[in-house]
Each structure stands twice: as C-alpha cells, then as structure tokens.
C-alpha cells in the first residue's frame, strides 16, 4: 500500500513536471534601433577683439593647443602705454603739487581767520579748491585702473588646454573692436548629439548602468553619459535633443567621429516571442494553443535566434506577453 502511494506521488510529480516543461510564458519581442551621430567639442568660444589696433603677434594657429600663458595673440600697446604714462604724470601733479599746496594754504588761512586777519570767504575758496583737487586725483586713479584693464584686453586670452579651430588674423593686421578673431574649442570631453523620439528617449533615460556606444571609425566601444537632456523638442524634426558625453577611452578626441548608439525598443508591430515548436501550421494559417486549450490564430513574422535558442515572432490580438502557451 505504501509502495502504491509512493508510486502515485511520483506519477503526479512527473506529470506536473511534464506539464511545466510543456508550457511557456510568452516573451515580449524587441527590436534594436541603431542611431548615428558625429562628435563635437564640449564647448566652443568665439574670440572677439575688445580693442581696436594692429596685431603685434599671433601665438597660435589652427590645431594648436593653448598653453600656460593662455594667450591667442596681442595687439600693439604703444598708445595705451602713452596714456598710462600721461595718467601717472597727472596723478603726480595733483598729489604732490596741487593737493599739497592747497592743504598747506587751508591750514595757513585757518590760522589767519582765527586771528581775524583775513576773510572767511578766502578760506572757503581754498577749501573748495582742495576738495576739487582731491576729486580730480580720485578720477585719475579710476582712469588708471581703466587704462590697465584696456591694456590687459589688448592680449586676447583663451582657456588653457583648448584647441584652436579657426584663426582669422595675422601679425600686422588691423582690427576694430568687435571683429571676430577665431574660435577655440574644448575637446577634453566629446559630445555626440542625438535626436530621439519620445519612446527612444524613455528607453535611454531608463538605463541604470553604464551606457555603451560604438566609435564606428575607431572600431571600439566606449562608455557614454547622457547630458543636456533638452526638455523642449525640435518642431522641424519633432525629436528631442540629447547629448551623450564621451570622456574616457576615446583615443583620438576630435570632431566628426561617428558614434553608433543602439537602443532596444519594444517591437513596433506588437509581436511577441514563442518557441518555434509552439507554432502549428494548418491550411496556410498559423496557430498557438494556450493553457486553456483554446487555439489562437497568429500572424507568423519569422524566426530569430536569441539566448542560444530559436524563437518565432508572432502577432495576435489574442496573445500578449505574459500569457502561457503549450509546446507540444
């Protein structure tokens, strides 16, 4: 009797195992969408002349890297140097001649007024002139700071490590304030601009781990970080602008490198995956059988290989991911 019970349990277990082995949970089907962009520098700055003058030197050319001096080139400073010298002479005159003189005169006339030997108006006039001289000295000091700043702006500066992408001036060339001189760019980090549809955008921001892209021309894969997620969209393309930052692993940081991004999206056709053996064909119609023993007509879209197995891509309004089908 006990042997019979054990045999019955073993039979039930084997049947349930077989049933489990003969059913399958329908899987969603995905399609890989390749997107391509070209690298560009993280930042680009236009260099503009802030003063007019003749270029005395241009220290870099296209392709050069800005060095420790952080200098693109310098204008001739002869006239601003002369203005600085004239300002120094004016300050010296105001401080050592006029201001000292009026200070001594005010002190002397104050004593005379106290002894009632001169009029109060004479003292007031000297005091007014001393105050005016002090104000003139302050104006000269402010003018000196302006001249110093103007001289500094005669040299066009750029950030250290940036590269020159455009040069529009040569030594000896005259420029006016506001004229464009060139461009410098920061290639320490590359940006790959993509235009994504909203479903593609949702898939991208859902990534939790490192995002991998392929540098097609270099033949290598590198990590990328999504930045500059534009909340607006381009009305012409009706896409969302997203920049991917490529920092590490890029051997040749420059613009124009092809970047391939592959996003795995749900199959647009609504297809799902079932084992090939679960699809039966009769009279040019394909069927799958659910666990309720009801056959469902499906549209057969072909086979794919995934995870080392063959799967059939099928579409049916009666079949969705998560349903269970029987594999004969």
Automatic annotation (TrEMBL):
SUPFAM superfamilies: HlyD-like secretion proteins. Gene3D superfamilies: 2.40.30.170, 2.40.420.20, 2.40.50.100, Helix hairpin bin. GO terms for cellular component: efflux pump complex. GO terms for molecular function: efflux transmembrane transporter activity. This is RND efflux pump membrane fusion protein barrel-sandwich domain-containing protein.
């Amino acid at each position: 009797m006990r042997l019979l019970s054990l045999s019955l349990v073993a039979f039930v277990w084997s049947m349930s195992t077989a049933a489990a082995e003969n059913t399958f949970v329908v899987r969603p089907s995905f399609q890989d969408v390749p997107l391509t962009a070209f690298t560009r520098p993280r930042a680009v700055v236009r260099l503009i002349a802030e003063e007019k003058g003749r270029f005395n030197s241009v220290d870099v050319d296209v392709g050069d890297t800005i060095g420790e001096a952080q200098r693109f080139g310098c204008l001739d400073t002869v006239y601003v140097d002369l203005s600085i010298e004239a300002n120094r002479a004016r300050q010296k005159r105001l401080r050592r001649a006029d201001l000292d003189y009026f200070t001594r005169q005010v002190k002397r006339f104050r004593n005379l007024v106290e002894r009632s030997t001169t009029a109060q108006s004479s003292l007031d006039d000297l005091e007014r002139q001393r105050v005016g001289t002090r104000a003139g000295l302050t104006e000269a000091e402010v003018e000196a700071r302006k001249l110093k700043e103007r001289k500094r702006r005669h040299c066009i500066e750029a950030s250290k490590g940036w590269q020159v992408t455009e040069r529009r001036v040569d030594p000896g060339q005259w420029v006016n304030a506001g004229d464009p001189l060139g461009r410098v760019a920061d290639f320490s980090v590359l940006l790959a601009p993509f235009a994504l549809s909203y479903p593609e955008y949702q898939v991208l921001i859902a990534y939790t781990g490192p995002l991998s892209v392929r540098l097609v021309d270099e033949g290598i894969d590198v990590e990328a970080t999504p930045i500059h997620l534009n909340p607006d969209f381009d009305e012409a393309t009706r896409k969302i602008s997203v920049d991917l930052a490529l920092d590490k692993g890029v051997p040749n940081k420059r613009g124009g490198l092809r970047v391939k991004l592959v996003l795995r999206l749900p199959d647009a056709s609504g297809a799902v995956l079932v084992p090939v053996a679960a699809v039966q064909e009769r009279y040019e119609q394909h069927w799958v059988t659910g666990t309720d023993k009801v056959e469902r007509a499906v549209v057969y879209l072909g086979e794919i290989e995934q995870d080392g197995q063959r799967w059939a891509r099928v579409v049916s309004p009666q079949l969705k991911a998560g349903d269970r089908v029987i594999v004969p």
